[in-house]
Design a protein that fits this description.
The complex is a heterodimer of chains A (120) and B (116). Helix content of chain A is 0%, strand content 48%. By secondary structure, chain A is mainly β. In chain B, strand 10 and strand 11 form a beta hairpin. The chains are: A mainly beta (120), B mainly beta (116).
């Protein structure tokens, strides 16, 4: 069964450093997402990406964050200058919508296993 | 505005007991999806179910069952004959009119402890 993969599984960095979290979405998927989960809290939407541009972003996704699809397979999240509060689990997801006769999508978002980011 | 409320922060039950996790949602849309995800201690998000707003039929999958009631905007999840391996955080979630680029809004989760 196809799956979303993420690397690394755990990243430790110093405050102020840049980090790049990598994701390989399911190969025929067209929509890509990043979510964040601070330890012990709920999963929060960061950004969605389609057709090589951001579709929607949350308030969390400020100028320190950027996303990119540098090639046909990877989808990356870059945090330019990490802060302590960026410590969290980051989940990538992908989807490929179809439209049923009811007008409702036939597919759903598949989540990767997450990258745990620790900022010291 | 879209919102998912899981009022139960933490539940503990003894193994083999049945347990119901509550979920109440808010949305302005008539077309939407509801989800349940399981997050075991290892941290990954395990997809359990997706239900669209047009289908109010209850669903059963093994020991798991879901009760969707649009009249009360609820989508409750029941585990029968609970097992220790069911211990996890369970998230209810909502996506409005998912056309592929719609975000999923998660509730705060319910931490379930199954005691041996």
């Amino acid at each position: 069964e196809p799956e979303v993969t993420q690397t690394p599984s755990h990243q430790v960095t110093q405050m102020g450093q840049e980090v790049i979290l990598r994701c390989v979405p399911i190969s025929n998927h067209l929509y890509f997402y990043w979510y964040r989960q601070i330890l012990g809290q709920k999963v929060e939407f960061l950004v969605s990406f389609y057709n090589n541009e951001i579709s929607e972003k949350s308030e969390i996704f400020d100028d320190q964050f950027s996303v990119e699809r540098p090639d046909g397979s990877n989808f990356t999240l870059k945090i330019r200058s990490t802060k302590l509060e960026d410590s969290a689990m980051y989940f990538c997801a992908s989807s490929s919508p179809g439209v049923a006769t009811s007008g409702v999508s036939t597919d759903t978002q598949y989540f990767g296993p997450g990258t745990r980011l620790t900022v010291l | 505005a879209q919102k998912v409320t899981q009022a139960q922060t933490e539940i503990s039950v003894v193994e083999k007991e049945d347990v119901t996790l509550d979920c109440v949602y808010e949305t302005r849309d008539t077309t939407y999806y509801l989800f349940w995800y399981k997050q075991p201690p290892s941290g990954e998000l395990v997809f359990l179910i997706r239900r669209n707003s047009f289908d109010e039929q209850n669903e059963i999958s093994g020991r798991y069952s879901w009760n969707f009631q649009k009249s009360t905007s609820s989508f409750n999840f029941t585990i029968t004959a609970s097992q220790v391996v069911d211990s996890a955080v369970y998230f209810c979630a909502l996506s409005e009119a998912p056309q592929g680029d719609d975000k999923i809004i998660f509730g705060k989760g319910t931490r379930l402890h199954i005691l041996p």
